[in-house]
Design brief:
The longest helix is centred in the C-terminal third of the chain and has 12 residues, at about 245-255. The chain contains nine helices and 16 strands. The strands form five sheets. Strands 1, 4, 7, 8, 10, 13, 14 and 15 form an eight-stranded mixed β-sheet that branches. Strands 2-3 form a two-stranded antiparallel sheet. The chain has a single domain (about 10-80, about 90-255), classed as Spore Coat Polysaccharide Biosynthesis Protein SpsA, Chain A. It is of the alpha/beta class. Helix content is about 25%, strand content about 25%.
């Protein structure tokens, strides 16, 4: 299940306001809202790390200082230690498992999703990279997503999942794995939706005009027009955290047998 060779970097969109979860996001960015005592961002990173991904670019904005502080103090938060207050020396007693390289990038409070991705171009332009939202978990096979993406030579491959209701609907070309239709949220939408968990090529940066570009609008429409947006159909578990009810659902699942916990 480990990706062969050097695994792509992972970019995580973590800069939005999370207004529908205002009970939590008034004091922290949504990706830092905790499930089982750990931020949902950590859960997403653990999913990717299970497949061999070790380099992460956290694309922040709203309350980015919260994310910076978390990773700057990550080892102290997750390990037992002894500190010599005189010298400042710290001896850690716990085994430290997360051998990750994490870049935290401030892309501004009002920048749209496409603009945030564009601002991370200098960190992601050396080859294929993964991209995902910082508020959803899944047991998606990241290795198979990458395999299909490389085989079909799309500029971007999104993970298509089944979820009724409040999300944007997409249409996959019959048997081909190419997206030939996409529209944002509609009241009666069902069927396949964009579940995030993208595999991307650097060509996507040329489709983003600037800070005001929404990733799910102009860039995706342009890729559809060129036949360069792929769809990887994931039939397993997927859940976003858009509301307090969603958070409660995830907390209950974490306390039982969480389907997204693919790591050991």
């Amino acid at each position: 299940m480990i990706i062969a060779g050097k695994a792509p970097k992972v970019a995580l969109l973590a800069g939005g306001f999370g207004t529908r979860l205002s009970e939590e996001t008034a004091i922290r960015p949504k990706p830092m809202v905790e499930i089982g005592g750990m931020p949902i961002l950590w859960h997403i990173m653990k999913i990717y790390a299970h497949y061999g991904c070790r380099e992460f670019v956290v694309i922040g904005g709203y309350k980015v200082e919260f994310i910076r502080d978390y990773f700057l103090n990550f080892r102290q938060r997750t390990s037992d230690f002894t500190i010599d207050l005189g010298s400042g020396q710290i001896d850690f007693h716990s085994k430290f498992d997360e051998d990750w390289k994490v870049t935290v990038l401030d892309t501004g409070g009002d920048t749209m999703t496409g603009g945030r991705i564009k601002r991370a171009q200098h960190l992601l332009s050396n080859g294929t990279f993964f991209l995902t939202y910082g508020d959803g978990v899944s047991d998606v096979r990241i290795d198979r997503l990458l395999e299909q993406h490389r085989k079909q030579e799309h500029w971007c491959t999104l993970t298509a999942v089944t979820q009724p209701g409040r999300y944007g609907a997409l249409h996959l070309e019959q048997g081909g794995g190419t997206v030939d239709g996409f529209r944002e949220k509609g009241k009666t939408d069902g069927g396949l939706i964009n579940g995030g968990f993208f595999a991307c090529e650097p060509e996507v940066f040329d489709l983003i005009d600037g800070d005001g570009t929404v990733w799910e609008e102009e860039p995706m429409a342009r890729m559809i027009d060129r036949g360069k947006l792929g769809g990887f159909h994931h039939e397993g578990y997927w859940q976003s955290m858009d509301s307090l009810r969603d958070k409660q659902v995830l907390e209950a699942e974490w306390a039982a047998t969480p389907a997204w916990k693919v790591w050991g």
